[in-house]
Amino acid sequence: MSLALAAILAVAVFLTSTLSGVFGMAGGLVLLAALLAMLPVATAIAVQGAIQIVANGSRAWFSRDHIDWRILCTICVGLVAAAILLFILRYTPDLAGVCIVIGLLPVLVWIPRRWLALDASKPLHGFFCGLMGGGLNLAVGVSGPTVDIFFIRTQMDRRKVIATKAATQVISHAAKVVFYGATASAMGGGDWLMVLVAAPFAIAGTNLGFHILQRMTDDGFRAWTRWVVTAIGIFYLARGLFLLLGG
């Protein structure tokens, strides 16, 4: 890995980790877009997963006092079910399909609460959060907006939302690394070097995002989350359609 590439990766990881530290997602979407421009799809998803383990792990650690462990356990059951299903189907990701699915995900954050009143604190809802969010994370590399619809409508404050989502994502990203490592041998020595370079910048960006989050209001947090994720989704959708049409 060249010095220039290492510098670009470090900056990208720091900025995207800061973004995720504030909103609990979005950063992973941006980071995956950068990695997809440099690596094969399966490898990009696996590398992003490894980096996100560090970013989400540090965010979960900073906010550990706010994690709801009951919700986390319920979500993990759904994640295991999704992983088993995709493994049986021998799923392989496709770049255009991945981009289009990610581009459509932000639609979920605009669904009125009265239409889809999901709540991760309810056991059955928590299971489906793990099944859908975990399945999408394994299939396309990210699942933030999907997981978010199960959290943004709960009665939890922003700190508890961020902490529990971060812990959920640590486990989900770890499953993603194992899944692609087992099915496609996706990551080589150079890819692990990228993860090692990115790790300290992921922690630093997450720490900055955590402090920014403390200054936000719950209403501001929810409003900004929608607009940031939507802007990123538009980029993905445009790229996916461009690839699908033979661009």
Q: Secondary-structure map with pairings?
A:
Elements: H1 3-23, H2 27-36, H3 41-62, H4 69-89, H5 95-104, H6 123-140, H7 144-151, H8 158-184, H9 189-214, H10 218-244
Helix pairs in contact: 1-2, 1-3, 1-9, 2-3, 3-8, 3-9, 4-6, 4-8, 5-10, 6-7, 6-8
Task: Explain this structure.
The chain is mostly helical. The chain has one domain (3-244). The chain has ten helices and no strands. The chain has helices spanning 3-23, 27-36, 41-62, 69-89, 95-104, 123-140, 144-151, 158-184, 189-214, 218-244.
Distance between the termini: 28 Å
Number of helices: 10
Describe the sheet with the most strands. Answer: none
Elements, N to C (H/E): HHHHHHHHHH
Uncertain segments are none
Helix content: over 70%
Rg result? 17 Å
Number of domains: 1
Q: Give the overall pLDDT as a whole number.
A: 82
**Large-scale geometry:** globular
Q: Which structural class fits the helix and strand makeup? A: mainly alpha
By DSSP, the count of extended strands is 0
Approximately what portion of the residues adopt beta-strand conformation?
under 5%
